[in-house]
Amino acid sequence: MKKFFRNVGLISAIVAGVVLLVGCGKKLQTTNYEDEKTKTSISFKYPEELECNYSTEAKDLRTSAENAIWIFDKYKIAVDIMTLSSNEDFNKVKEKRSSSEDYTEVTLNKISGISYYYAPYNRYNIYLPINDKYYADFHVYSTKEGYKKEDVEKVFNSDEMKEILNTIELKYN
What we know:
By secondary structure, the chain is an alpha+beta fold. It is built from four helices and ten strands, in the order H-E-E-E-E-E-H-E-E-E-E-H-H-E.
C-alpha cells in the first residue's frame, strides 16, 4: 500500500511540475508578413517583453531589395523573397554560396537551409526554401553603431536570436 501511495505522489509531483513549467513559459508575440506578389507568408514569434517595430516602409529597410523588417533594440531581421530562375533549384543556390564566409547548413523550425556572413552589409544571411519557385533571404543586422563583424556575429549566435529564428514559418498560398 505504501508503494501505491508513493507512486501516486510521484506521478502527481511530475504532473504538477509539467503543468507549472508549461504554464510559466514565455509569452510570445507573432508577426506575419504577407507578400502579395509571390503569394507567400512569413511569420515568426518573439518574446512579448521585447519591443519590436515591424515595417514594410522603404525608409526603414536597409536595402531596396528587402520587403519587410523587424527592428528590435539590439538587432534587426529583414526579409527578401527571392525567385529561383527557371534553370536552378535551391541546391544550386546552396552550392553557389558554399564558399561564402561562415557558410553553414542550418535547420530552423524543421526547414533546412543555409546561413553565411555577408561582409558588404555586415550581416548574416539565412536562405530558407519556400517551394520550387521561391526562397526567403533573411538578413540579420546588429543595431550597434559601426561595422564590426564581431557585433553582428554576437547577435546572430545569441540564444535569443536562435529562439526567434527557430519559430519561422513559411507558407505558399
